[in-house]
Specification:
The chain is built from seven helices and no strands. By secondary structure, it is mainly alpha-helical.
Length: 202
Amino acid sequence: MNPTEILKSEHRVIEQVLNCLETIADECNEQGRLDADSAREALDFFRTFADRCHHGKEEAHLFPAMEAKGFPRDGGPTGVMLHEHETGRQHVRAMAAAVDAAASGEPAALEQFSRHAQGYIGLLREHISKEDHCLFGMASQVLNAADQEALMAKFHHVESEEMGDGTHQRYLDIANRLADRYRVARAEAAAAHSGCACGHHG
């Protein structure tokens, strides 16, 4: 498994939790209620697994490796991805700010949570598609075997040293717990933990 295959595998787990978030947001709109515990679990997942771990690997390691091969950041594909990462963080912060009031049934907070959830879901689904079908292909074309091996070692470091051993599995468990709660299909990577991106291939 190479670095972009690891990132694609993580995308499937992120999509799984996006599907759960969609149902949580629908409950805000249709039933005027927010399951605060599930919302907080989903936001924790997005902050830690999707952003610190997954986006962290891209921002600290994959994107600079691509830029070293000639891809420009300003006006280039990595710059677009970085901007979308930051937009996603803004949506997550807005959802988090609304959770307590939304859980108590406050209409404005329910609307805020739902609006930013839908914005985040749309953004990330499109973002993931761009990376899977365009950016990662570009990376594969310019990164040779030595580059890929170096990235694998850096991904291993993110998992084992920056995130801490066991963190990846803990968030896969959260993703699966939410999926079971909301009757969302489990991603293959989450259902049968392959060790990808956990440092087992470093």
